[in-house]
Amino acid sequence: MEKLDACIRNHDKEIEKMCNFHHQGFVDAITELLKVRTDAEKLKVQVTDTNRRFQDAGKEVIVQTEDIIRCRIQQRNITTVVEKLQLCLPVLEMYSKLKEQMSAKRYYSALKTMEQLENVYFPRVSQYRFCQLMIENLPKLREDIKEISMSDLKDFLESIRKHSDKIGETAMKQAQQQKAFSVALQKQNNIKFGKNMYINDRIPEDRNEIVLKHTFEEDDENEEEILTVQDLVDFSPVYRCLHIYSVLGDEETFENYYRKQRKKQARLVLQPQSSMHETVDGYRRYFTQIVGFFVVEDHILHVTQGLVTRAYTDELWNMALSKIIAVLRAHSSYCTDPDLVLELKNLIVIFADTLQGYGFSVNRLFDLLFEIRDQYNETLLKKWAGVFRDIFEEDNYSPIPIVNEEEYKIVISKFPFQDPDFEKQSFPKKFPMSQSVPHIYIQVKEFIYASLKFSESLHRSSTEIDDMLRKSTNLLLTRTLSSCLLNLIRKPHIGLTELVQIIINTTHLEQACKYLEDFITNITNISQETVHTTRLYGLSTFKDARHAAEGEIYTKLNQKIDEFVQLADYDWTMSEPDGRASGYLMDLINFLRSIFQVFTHLPGKVAQTACMSACQHLSTSLMKMLLDSELKQISMGAVQQFNLDVIQCELFASSEPVPGFQGDTLQLAFIDLR
């Protein structure tokens, strides 16, 4: 404690020393502070006054500063709005453009604009409500576009259905003109190289233009160029609809719908009218509609990618071809007019050539034409049967009289009659045949021309055409003419004189067959010496007709004899004969003499056979009369009277009414009766 107290005292001493050392300084400092106090108060007053004045002066600055701050905020907001608007404006402009395109019906462009909006513009402003509304509206617009484009497509399909006949007519005219040009060029080349397609100048038209000049009527004679299918049909609805469905990714739906609708239209087009077979206009309308349909399909095939394919069009064509062939078979069977059948054939040829030009197979159509050719020949045969009947009915069955050289040349120009002895005879004179012979010969040639017309444009060789002509001519001779001759011969009103003239006529027609063969050869340039050339069967045709006429002569002669014999009125109980032959028998003998004079123009055997047959039949008739079972008794006077009649018969037989009998051959016919 003592040490501690000592230490404290030492410290206190040090502190006191220090305080004493600094005391003066402290006193000086206090004195300075007292001086400064006054100055500090003055300064405070000045600072307070200055602050007051600053506050008063800064109030306007504060107001202006606040205005500036507010303006800066507004400026920043405006800048932000401008930036956002600049981002939205392209979207709004594109949407406005979309609306304009919809209003202008530029639907494909509208779909492209939608794609741009969805892929480029909407992502930039997707946070805005108006953008969401636009996005929600786009699917509806797409559906509207699909419906509108489909409606346009339906209108297009309806339009081409209505205009398909005009399209087809135009296409067939083009094909016809092109073919006519090709044929003319070929003909010119043939002439250049010395090839004559037709020697006979009877056919003035070019071989592929027969009857074609009446096939189509020109709508405008001054029209220099024919419109194409593109000129007649606006295909833009199909293109637009295809592009629209392609953009929408629904191309398959569109293709299926288009093909389905076109198949329905094809079935409608292929359905013929019930009266189609009555006029050529019915067939023409049917063909033009079908051609128009397939021309449109071919155009669609070549200008669109995948809407229709070649396999699809071929399938559709094969279906249509089967229907067409069935329809033509059915309706052509009703045609009885050969001119209508010929025009139908020409239409089928143009129809086939037109579609062949568009790449469709038409071989079956040409096969059908061969069937129709047979039918055409049948209609020709029926028509010529009527022609022959009219000729036979109008014939007077007497030799053709001529009084001068001019009349002779007229007959010779119609029928190839050659007889040097006849030419040496002086006028007036008579041709051995009647008027029907040159008329029939001319009509056979006309038949050949008519048959030839169908063979044109069938893409067949001259050999095949020659064979067709010869076969059809043979049918005319062996069937039609032969049938007409046989019917004529069997007619009751045809007498013995007419039958004799018919035999003479058939002889000359038979001789004229070789000229018909030459006529066909001149047309086709196919020599008769060719191995496969068909011969005309005129020889057998006219020989059969002659045999029938000869048989009819024998029959009618016997019937005439029976008619005279029925007039016999013997008195089987008479006591004395009349002293002269019966009147009926003398009339009969005179009749036979006059008839057998007519028979001098017949071949010898025919006249001899007729005479022998008549005598035998007369002998038999008299024998039956004498040996009649109902005859109970005969007086000697009646026998003597009957003997006078038999003597007249024997005298007639011995007078050689027909030359050529040897000895008493004809008299032997009455030996049994004697």
TrEMBL record:
<keyword id="KW-0813">Transport</keyword>
<dbReference type="InterPro" id="IPR007225">
    <property type="entry name" value="EXOC6/Sec15"/>
</dbReference>
<dbReference type="GO" id="GO:0005886">
    <property type="term" value="C:plasma membrane"/>
</dbReference>
<dbReference type="GO" id="GO:0006893">
    <property type="term" value="P:Golgi to plasma membrane transport"/>
</dbReference>
<comment type="similarity">
    <text>Belongs to the SEC15 family.</text>
</comment>
<feature type="domain" description="Exocyst complex component EXOC6/Sec15 N-terminal">
    <location>
        <begin position="3"/>
        <end position="172"/>
    </location>
</feature>
<keyword id="KW-0268">Exocytosis</keyword>
<dbReference type="InterPro" id="IPR042044">
    <property type="entry name" value="EXOC6PINT-1/Sec15/Tip20_C_dom2"/>
</dbReference>
<dbReference type="Pfam" id="PF20651">
    <property type="entry name" value="EXOC6_Sec15_N"/>
</dbReference>
<dbReference type="Pfam" id="PF04091">
    <property type="entry name" value="Sec15_C"/>
</dbReference>
<dbReference type="InterPro" id="IPR046361">
    <property type="entry name" value="EXOC6/Sec15_C"/>
</dbReference>
<dbReference type="GO" id="GO:0000145">
    <property type="term" value="C:exocyst"/>
</dbReference>
<feature type="domain" description="Exocyst complex subunit EXOC6/Sec15 C-terminal">
    <location>
        <begin position="365"/>
        <end position="674"/>
    </location>
</feature>
<dbReference type="GO" id="GO:0006886">
    <property type="term" value="P:intracellular protein transport"/>
</dbReference>
<dbReference type="InterPro" id="IPR042045">
    <property type="entry name" value="EXOC6/Sec15_C_dom1"/>
</dbReference>
<dbReference type="GO" id="GO:0090522">
    <property type="term" value="P:vesicle tethering involved in exocytosis"/>
</dbReference>
<protein>
    <submittedName>
        <fullName>Exocyst complex component 6</fullName>
    </submittedName>
</protein>
<dbReference type="InterPro" id="IPR048359">
    <property type="entry name" value="EXOC6_Sec15_N"/>
</dbReference>
